[in-house]
Amino acid sequence: MIEVPSRLEGQTFQLYKLEQELEPLGYTIGGNWDYDHGYFDYKLGKEGGYQFLRIPFKAIDGQLDSRSVSVKFGKPFLLAHTYQRGLDDYADAGTFSGIINQFSEPQDKDASFPEEYIEAGKQCVKEVESVLLH
Predict the structure, then answer these.
(1) Which among 24, 27, 15 is positioned nearest to 121, based on CA atoms?
(2) CATH assignment at residue 93
(3) pTM: predicted TM-score of the whole model, two decimal places
(4) Which of 6-15, 26-35, 57-66 is the least confident region?
(5) Name one Pfam family in it (predicted).
(6) Element (H, E) at 72
């Protein structure tokens, strides 16, 4: 994980507005949220796994499933996941495990981050700053 200093940190926005502004740029929330916090993710690459820019946020006046909730940004960071090839060593063969555990565990949740994506991630943060902090 590589933290990226940003003027976004500590800024407050309505989540609905953020979704309207960031989704056209390629950011997704997807399954990366809970009722009090979440992440905007931007996939930078797929070199040996996946490289993401992740911008964390926390709800400050309600739950994330409320249309009017406001959120505060945390410090953006770059994250790489390298997934196992082949069978998962920890796969459970129980009756319902195929329904629940469909994906392999990451081989390295904090994999090294390719240099070329570090600068790309920093530029993405600057783009988000220019869109949201104009």
Answers:
(1) 27
(2) 3.30.310.100
(3) 0.77
(4) 26-35
(5) YugN
(6) strand 70-73
